Amino acid sequence: MVRVVTGAAVALVLVAFCAVQLASDAFCASAAAPGTLPTRVPIVVALQIYRTLDRVAPAPYIETTLAEYDAAHGDRTGALRHALRLPPTPIRNELLGRIALARGDRVLAMEYFFAAPDIAALQQYVLALAHSDPTRAYAVERRVRTSLTSLETHPDAVAEACWTMGLLAEAASNTTTGAHRAAWRRRALGDDIAAVELSPLSEKYLLAAAGAELSLGNVRAARGWYHRVLSVDPKSPGAIAALAAIARMRTRPSR
User: Fold this and answer.
1) What global pTM score does this model have?
2) Smallest Cα–Cα separation from 126: which of 102, 109, 150?
3) What tens digit of pLDDT does each residue of 227-250 get?
4) Angle at alpha carbon of residue 169, lines to 168 and 170, rounded to 5°
5) Which of 159, 188, 242, 253 makes the best surface tag, with the fewest CB within 10 Å?
């Protein structure tokens, strides 16, 4: 009798494991080759298995999968319910950020993305915000740069954040006048120089610094930056065209 009970228990465990594996494969069917077993398991069956397990023996991977499925299919309430059951991890914060974004709460989504941290999502947020409010976008990107620095991210990623800040500062300068415009342009130059210091052979960052100097009316300094570009890429069309334009400006006769 003991052997029968033990055998039945083992069989039930094996069946449960097989069911979980089939359900997991079904959720990943988009990455499977056509005609393979994962593509043949109906997603409704996989959902039923996972939702049953969620009631009987909830686990983080089940909550994560169900939250992602609900979020992808527009069930924000269900996605939020499952995400809140997860332990405090970057995955939980990333999911809560996506759910907040789907609900239209961009500010809350941004905070979750910072907590994750999900740099790619934050950069998308910055780009979306830049068109309507470059000043606020600049502040967010500054926080992104701080996060990248604290995470000891590769210097190239930090340099890209500095360059993005330069673009946003230049955009912000175009929304104001006088001393405020000059201040934003000086800030743009500082950000571009910071990018160059982190990645001194980047033609893009050198050109940005040269353009920032021109925006401030510093023609001589801009010319120096363009010559640095040519030292990196002697055939740089941007630097060659800019130096030619500067030369024409200097030789133009006064009236």
Assistant:
1) 0.76
2) 109
3) 999 999 999 999 999 999 999 886
4) 90
5) 253
Question: Which two tokens mark 221?
Answer: 């300094």
Burial of 19 per CB tally in 10 Å (0-12, 13-18, 19+): middle
> Is the CB of residue 233 less than 8 Å from the CB of residue 203?
yes
pLDDT digit string, tens, across residues 32-88:
566 665 566 677 878 888 888 888 878 898 899 899 989 988 999 999 999 999 999
Helix (H) or strand (E) holding 204: helix 203-215
Give me the count of residues in the chain. 255
Using an 8 Å Cβ cutoff, are 141 and 168 in contact? yes
Q: C-alpha distances in angstroms, 103 versus 79, 84, 100, 108?
A: 11, 16, 5, 10
Give the domains, in start order, of the chain with CATH numbers: 117-255 (1.25.40.10)
